[in-house]
Amino acid sequence: MNVVVAQSGGPTSVINASLLGVYRQAKAWDAVDTVYGSLNGIEGILNDNLVSLNEALATDETMALLRQTPSAALRSCRHKLPSYEQSPEVYENIRRTLEKHDIGAFFYIGGNDSMDTVHKLSAYFSLVDCPIRVMGVPKTIDNDLMVTDHTPGYGSAAKFVATTMREIIRDCTVYDLNSVTIVEIMGRDTGWLTAAAALPRLNGDTAPHLVYLPEVPFSVDAFVEDIQRIQRYSRTVVVAVSEGVEIDTLGDYQSGKVDNFGHKYLSGIGKCLEDVVRERIGCKVRSIELNLPQRCAAHVSSLTDVEEAEGVGAAAVRAAMQGVTGHMAIIRRVGDTPYRVDFDHIPVSQAANAVKYVPREWINEQGNNVTEEALTYIRPLILGELPVITENGMPKHFTL
Length: 400
Prior knowledge:
Elements: E1 2-7, H1 15-27, E2 35-38, H2 42-46, E3 50-52, H3 53-56, H4 60-68, H5 88-100, E4 103-110, H6 112-127, E5 133-138, H7 154-172, E6 179-185, H8 192-195, E7 210-212, H9 220-231, E8 236-242, H10 269-280, E9 284-289, H11 293-296, H12 303-321, E10 327-336, E11 339-347, H13 372-378, E12 390-391, E13 394-395
Parallel strand pairs: 1-2, 1-4, 4-5, 5-10, 6-8, 6-9, 7-8
Antiparallel strand pairs: 2-3, 10-11, 12-13
């Protein structure tokens, strides 16, 4: 038989490592002939737009380049499958395409919404007694998938945030004057990535002085008081804030637009709070939105993240080859000192359309910083550096 793999949702620094894990493990099975890639996620299957990865990844060099390349080599989509009851023809079209190419297993690399697709497709194949297996491979910098200890993509994004925060801290301490710097960090519903902004504490930094996550209510008055309190002993105040923090009292500062899954397009909280500080405190203030580099900063990717991304892709293939379908591969943490993990799989219904939040006990009582437990959890995920192949002084990338 043949198999097909696709990538969906927002890109990361290591989603291609998961693609490589699927490819290498699939090619290790005598039962698998061709490994296809579906271009633009599930849309590639709907449009019969598949490419042979046997040809694209024919050499050790191309596989090494794929491993270090950020974003999604197969390109992505944000396509929400309707229910089978609403549009049976969509599912029949998917089935025809897969059967046309003798596909025996489909691997979907993505986050919450992609796992919804895995759940719907596996349920459909079961309903019509079709033997095609469907497996989810977790991916998201948001780290908000249930059950798995963490998600591939998070460790490298957290490393970028922590590294960039240290550099911002160095920059902010140059001048001997009162200043506030507000750093806005990605996180639609959860504060996992913003929590990583506190990692410089492990290296002796006192900043960022304040860290605000969407898991706890946000008060503008308390925010101003927090800054004024810190200014009593520090001229420089550095703040990390999640883009998902809600400030109902300040009116509309976001576009209000949504994607195909109904998720709001976020950003603007940093600029909003910059205006608050300027009006109510009056010192020098600036806001920095880290934006897209958080997702694909492979030049500071975590080797731990790369290896686990590849491992979880391989785990999904092993499960499918053993007859499992409708599951998502996961990472289980089995030790902290030393850090150790193993790979397993769970019914995808346990992860689809659900959100894993930062535990309340990992946020301090005042709701303006994270605890040492949070840093202990995150630290192992950012360790190690990937040797990078370069060209003309820049990392070399794989492209189809």
